[in-house]
Amino acid sequence: MNRIETAFTHIKKEGKLAMMPFLVAGFPNFSQSLKILKVLSQHSDLLEIGFPYSDPLADGPVIQKADQVALKAGSTTSKVFELIKNLRLTTEIPITVLVYANLVYQRGIEKFYRDARNAGIDGVLIPDVPFEEISIFLKAAKKYNIDNIYLIATTTTPRRLNKITKVAQGYLYLTSVVGITGTQKDIPRKTLQYIKQIKRQTRLPIAVGFGISNLSQVKKLKINGADGVIIGSSLIKLIQKSNTNNPQTLINFLKNLNY
C-alpha cells in the first residue's frame, strides 16, 4: 500500500474521518508556509497543497486571494516543489497537490510528474482538465507511481462516475456544493445522499471539500459515509486573521473539527 491507502485504512480502523487541511504553497510567504505545513502535518491525516495560480477557476475569493499573495511573494512551480521536498524531510504524511493544467503544461507533463515524485508527492489533482482529456496525465502519473485524484460532484452522472472509478486512485474528491470553494453553513441534503450512491459504486475513500467549516458539517458527513474532509477556505481565513507564529491556534482549529 502507498501512503494514501495506508492512511485511509488506518483512519477507517479508528472509526473517524480523515482530517485533510488545504494550504496554498507560499501563503502568506514561503517561510511561514513551511512552518504552518509542518504544524498541520503533525495534527492531520493527509495534506493537500495548492500550486498558486493567477486564474484559479475552481476556487472562491478566499483561496484566490491566497494565490495572489503567494504569487506576489515570488512563488513559482519550482519553489513549490522545493517547499514540499523540505516538508517531506520532516513527515511521512500523505501529500496531494492541487494544480491547474497550465502549470503542468508549462513545465512539461513528464517533468512535472517526475518532479512531483522526487519531491515526495503522493497524489495530483488537476481541477480544470475534464475526464475525457486526462489520459496523458494519467500515463505520467502511473509511470511515477502518483495517484491521480478526481473531482466529482452531485451533477456527476452514474455513467460518468463509473468511468472515473475505473481509473481513479487514492480517493475521490467530492465537492459539497456545485461551483467554487468557500465556506458554507451546512451540507446540502443532495450531497449527503450522493455519498451513499458513490459508496455503492466504488470502494475508494470519499473526501468532501468546498465549504467545510464547522463540526456539525463534519458529523453529518461522517454519519452519511464520507471518509475524509478537506478544509481550505476556513483554514486560510484563520491564517489571515490570526498570528501564525502561534502553532496552538492551528492545532485548536483542527481539534475543533476532528470527529
TrEMBL record:
Domain of life: Bacteria
Protein name: Tryptophan synthase alpha chain
Class of the enzyme per the UniProt entry, highest EC level: lyase
Gene3D superfamilies xrefs: Aldolase class I (3.20.20.70)
UniProt-listed CDD domains: Tryptophan_synthase_alpha (cd04724)
Gene from which the chain derives: trpA
Pathway listed: Amino-acid biosynthesis; L-tryptophan biosynthesis; L-tryptophan from chorismate: step 5/5
GO CC annotation: cytosol
Quaternary state and interactors: Tetramer of two alpha and two beta chains.
Natural source organism: Candidatus Nomurabacteria bacterium GW2011_GWF2_43_24
InterPro entries to which the protein is assigned, alphabetical: Aldolase_TIM, RibuloseP-bd_barrel, Trp_synthase_alpha_AS, Trp_synthase_suA
Reactions mediated catalytically: (1S,2R)-1-C-(indol-3-yl)glycerol 3-phosphate + L-serine = D-glyceraldehyde 3-phosphate + L-tryptophan + H2O
Record flagged with keyword Transferase: no
List of catalytic residues: E48 (proton acceptor), D59 (proton acceptor)
Family per record: Belongs to the TrpA family.
SUPFAM superfamilies noted in UniProt: Ribulose-phoshate binding barrel (SSF51366)
Assigned EC number: 4.2.1.20
GO molecular function terms noted in the UniProt entry: tryptophan synthase activity
Sorted UniProt keywords: Amino-acid biosynthesis, Aromatic amino acid biosynthesis, Lyase, Tryptophan biosynthesis
Function per UniProt: The alpha subunit is responsible for the aldol cleavage of indoleglycerol phosphate to indole and glyceraldehyde 3-phosphate.
